[in-house]
Amino acid sequence: MDRVLFIRTLQAQRSKLLIVAVALGIWGVLMPLIYAQLIDTPLGARFKEMIDSGLFPAQFAQFGGGNLFTLPGSIALGFIHPIFVAIVCVFAIGFTVAAVAGERQRGTLEVVLARPISRRKAYGSLLGATIVLVGLAILAMVAGTLASSAVFGKLDELDLGQVPLLWLNTVLLYIALGSVALAASVSFDRLAPALGITLGFALVSYFFQILGSLWPDAEPLQPFSLFHYLDPAAILDGTGDPFDLVLLALVTLLVVGWALVVFPRRDLAAPS
Amino acid sequence: MTAAIATEGLTKRYGHRGPHPPGAGGVIEALTDLSIEVREGEVFGFLGPNGAGKTTMIRLLLGYLHPSAGRARVLGLDTEHDGLAIRSRVGYLPGGIALYDTMNGLDLLDYLCRLYRRPPARRAALADRLEMSAATLRRPVRDYSRGMRQKMGVIQALQHDPELAILDEPTEGLDPLMQRAFYDILAELKHEGRTIFLSSHILSEVERVCDRVAIIRHGRLVALQEIGELLDSRKRHVEMRLTGPAPSLAGVPGVSGIHVTDGLVTCQLEGDVRPFLAAIDGAAIRDLTIEPAHLEEAFLEYYAEDVDLADASPGRAAGGGA
User: Fold this and answer.
1) How many CA atoms lie within 13 A of B320 on its CB side?
2) Whole-model pTM above 0.90?
3) What number is the ipTM of this complex?
4) Are strands B90-93 and B164-168 parallel, antiparallel or unpaired?
5) Around Cβ A151, how many Cβ atoms within 10 Å?
6) Residue B314 pLDDT > 80
7) How many residue pairs bridge chain A and chain B with CB atoms within 8 Å of each other?
8) Any A CB within 8 A of B85 CB
């Protein structure tokens, strides 16, 4: 990792990080708030009766493995909701894809690589920045969730010892996704193909997981999704599978290894 | 004197991997068997039209591209294995440089210099020469004009006082005053023993600042000469107005294309001028003009075939390669 490039990359992202962190903090506040409203108010009780009556398939109340009627379940819902995914992907995909392919296309990468920085170090700096940005963004979500749970007096319904594990598992998922995006970024001279491939991968992966959670016949597709290896409800219940962490770490290592081999060997033609 | 840059059979093909024969389907040979040597302390011009392979050559020297065949050494170091060591001693100005628009000029120069781990020893002098005031450098780069961006490009390439400067179209976008300031900078660098590798298609610029020049055509070297030698071998146009009879120029060494009309003699003069001067000695000359040879004529001579082809077929662009 090159320290100067790493720090400069983080500095360039600080405004975006602030916006994303605030957005995720607010999103984190919402889940315990909604849960408290459903549990503690007559309106919430009527909604629960409606769900229990079977008017809607049970899967819709347990979207992606979440559950609106328990605190861990509602927090889990927040962690797998498309809004959360989209906000975290500002860094996990948006930043990473643009980090190399975008700079290549603009022509700024060649100014940096004219300096005595190896491509591996440049890649390491960008991966390091991705880890920090994703880690801080998800930390904001966790902080919002905990603060909101405390405000609504629900903190005792959470096993706080599991919260760091939830953060770690979520970070590992988005680092894995980010490493795929960064690998695509170092493989193309233009932003569009790198972004297209990464978005395609992420959307198919997410679709497999959600489809499997809503439709039992599609469950066999779920293991092929990276999102399958983040189960916030199970983690908060203390029944999380350590294999999820190992698998996400292995995927990341594999993709990072591939990028470290491919990037230095690539020809970087003049920007068009 | 050792070579600042030396290439041996440097070849770059695009569109395939492995040792496919040149001309195979989909393969573009941007640079073919290029062997040149740039001496330490000289200003070396690398000439060719767009698409001739100039930028490919520079990108090979800096390790952005990997050669398909041959090898290159910069400051005695192999470009394939010692890229970091080379880049720590080189300053590079890319053609049409792109800068980080959100930063201000000073922060950008600081950042790019910190990546070298060397102090910006020349920055103040360069900024002064190129009229980039402290106030200007504090403005965001996005507010800079094209010329100011080019000045930033020159400063970032030279601020750390590199042993070798590789400059791709360095005066692009600079006004005539700033071009002159840039030539003064080059003269100063040369005086201090720095080597400059300058790629350009502005022939008057190359003629003015370079010691030697290489001309490439379709990725192949077609000429490598001292500027003076190259110009000496060109024909100069002579125009002589007379008030008396025309001197006999037939058979004078170096004189050709003699054309005599009423009181006016025109001819071409090549090489040593003394036989010509001896032949016109005593003639009733009212006015004599010997136009100096220009690099443009030499350049166009090497590209005459392309010009002819382009003239014959308007759809075909002169030059090729990548």
Assistant:
1) 12
2) no
3) 0.84
4) parallel
5) 13
6) no
7) 68
8) yes
